[in-house]
Automatic annotation (TrEMBL):
Cellular compartments per GO CC: voltage-gated potassium channel complex
Alphabetized UniProt keyword annotations: Ion channel, Ion transport, Membrane, Potassium, Potassium channel, Potassium transport, Transmembrane, Transmembrane helix, Transport, Voltage-gated channel
PANTHER family tied to this protein: POTASSIUM VOLTAGE-GATED CHANNEL PROTEIN SHAKER, VOLTAGE-GATED POTASSIUM CHANNEL
Domain BTB residues, every copy: 46-146
Protein name according to UniProt: BTB domain-containing protein
One of the GO BP terms on file: protein homooligomerization
Length: 490
């Protein structure tokens, strides 16, 4: 039976004489007593009052018991939030978010985030009430904080898997992050070289062929070409090595070759090797120009490491139908107004509009409201057609633009939610580390105090009733004190 007894060294000390065992027994006993006092017997049909931030909710025990592994579904876990004076459970949490939390229990597992509750706030509430992991993932997917779980095959070889993670997933380790930063620096260097080498300062003026020159005469080489060649060689060596190693370590070779980003990597590498195989003569000069222009695709390599470019790419991908519709409307308008202005300006006798295809350029720059002014109508009918062309161009372009802007805003908000969630995770990890460090210091201090006690019974805290279950007292044969009960209050 439950009795209150005075604690003494002779009755509560460890038989083995371990120092501090009495204090440990006292703590265990107090925890058991707290569990008994917090235990609230209830029937499944009894209504339960939940007070969340001052707003009272009422439900049944049977409703919460549908998910016994959660905070509200477990009687023992939610008992520490019970207010015996008000006969209710009190949670100092977000009130608006709790509507969806309670509906999760009522609907049997349907979690819907309220629109006025930010995603990162709602996710924190879901984690606090310890809802299943599947519910958290659904909220994260809807808010864009997490991506759809995709199958990510890994190489069968262990070492290849390490290299693949380091080159393909920058957030997998510190080494992968360092390689990603270095790759961005190399890409930036290649773009700077691509632009700077076209400056007139680094060009040698063309020299005329001397009259007494032989057939083997060649103009003097540009002294800067050697510098550009060395820098481009360094860049291409890194690009080539990265591409080849990733290809060797990739678990799916065909999928790797057909990937959009990998095709961009290949296009940024090939011009260098094509240029090595060509000579700068009259027959190959046009090919060299095309090859050099292709080098501009290196700028798209930044999309592998830039979230901003990824948002832009996702927006264009999601708005593909609207963009096709925009081009279709624009093509129809160009055809109509180019034909009208051609005949309005006099047909073949017109100076600026020699044919309908010649008028296409004027129609395009007019409908897009650019208006270079290099070709313009002169007659009154032509000016009327030009005015109608400009007005219709504004309407044609303005119609699909809100849909594209909405898609961009959607992806941008998802990225912002992702960043907020990452910041909250970092703050939570820092807080947990601080608490762990603090608890470690407290436990160390407590252990030092226990070691200094030398087996002596510690004094009970002030105004605390020491309770224990004394089975020995029930079977006591002492006639003077058949049932020994005493209360020691310090």
């Amino acid at each position: 039976m439950l009795t209150t007894a005075a604690t003494s060294a002779s009755t509560s000390s460890d038989p083995n004489g371990a120092p501090g065992s009495s204090y440990r027994g006292y703590k265990v006993l107090m925890e058991k007593y707290d569990g008994l006092t917090n235990y609230i017997p209830s029937n499944m049909d009894d209504p339960i009052v939940l007070n969340v931030g001052g707003k009272r909710f009422e439900t049944y025990e049977e409703t919460l018991a549908r998910f016994p592994d959660t905070l509200l579904g477990s009687k023992s876990r939610r008992s520490k939030f019970y207010n015996s004076r008000r006969q209710e459970y009190f949670f100092d949490r977000h009130r608006s978010a709790f509507d969806a939390i309670l509906y999760y229990y009522q609907s049997g597992g349907t979690l819907i985030r309220p629109e006025h509750v930010p995603p990162h706030v709602f996710i924190n509430e879901v984690v606090f009430y310890d809802l299943p992991e599947e519910a958290v993932q659904v909220v994260q997917l809807e808010a864009g904080i997490a991506d759809e779980p995709e199958e990510q095959p890994m190489p069968s070889n262990y070492y290849m898997g390490i290299i693949w993670n380091a080159l393909e997933y920058p957030n997998s380790s510190k080494v992968a992050k360092f390689l990603a930063i270095f790759s961005v620096l190399v890409i930036t260097l290649s773009l700077i070289i691509f632009c700077v080498e076209t400056l007139p300062t680094f060009k040698v003026p063309n020299q005329d062929r001397p009259p007494n020159a032989t057939n083997e005469w060649k103009p003097p080489p540009n002294p800067y070409d050697a510098v550009w060649f060395q820098l481009n060689t360094f860049v291409i060596v890194w690009f080539t090595g990265e591409y080849v190693i990733r290809f060797i370590c990739s678990p799916q070779k065909l999928k790797f070759l057909l990937g959009a980003l990998n095709l961009i990597d290949l296009l940024s590498i090939l011009p260098y090797y094509v240029q090595l195989g060509l000579k700068e003569d009259d027959s190959s000069i046009s090919v060299l120009r095309v090859v050099r222009v292709v080098r501009v695709f290196r700028v798209f390599k930044l999309s592998r490491h830039s979230r901003g470019l990824q948002i832009l790419g996702n927006t264009l991908k999601a708005s593909l139908n609207e963009l096709i519709m925009l081009m279709f409307f624009l093509a129809i308008g160009v055809m109509i107004f180019a034909s009208c202005v051609y005949y309005a300006e006099g047909g073949p006798e017109s100076d600026g509009f020699q044919s309908i295809p010649h008028a296409f350029w004027w129609a395009v720059v007019t409908m897009t409201t650019v208006g270079y002014g290099d070709v313009s109508p002169v007659s009154l009918p032509g000016k009327i057609v030009g005015a109608l062309c400009a007005i219709s161009g504004v309407l044609t372009i303005a119609l699909p633009v809100p849909v594209i802007v909405s898609n961009f805003e959607n992806f941008y908000n998802k990225e912002m939610n992702r960043r907020k969630e990452e910041e909250l995770k970092k703050a939570e990890e820092a807080r947990e580390k601080g608490e762990a460090k603090k608890s470690g210091l407290n436990s160390r201090k407590q252990s030092m105090e226990l070691e200094n006690m030398d087996g002596k019974t510690p004094k009970s805290p002030k105004d605390v009733v020491v309770c224990s279950v004394n089975n020995k007292d029930e079977n006591s044969t002492d006639k003077t004190h058949p049932t020994r009960r005493s209360v020691e209050t310090v």
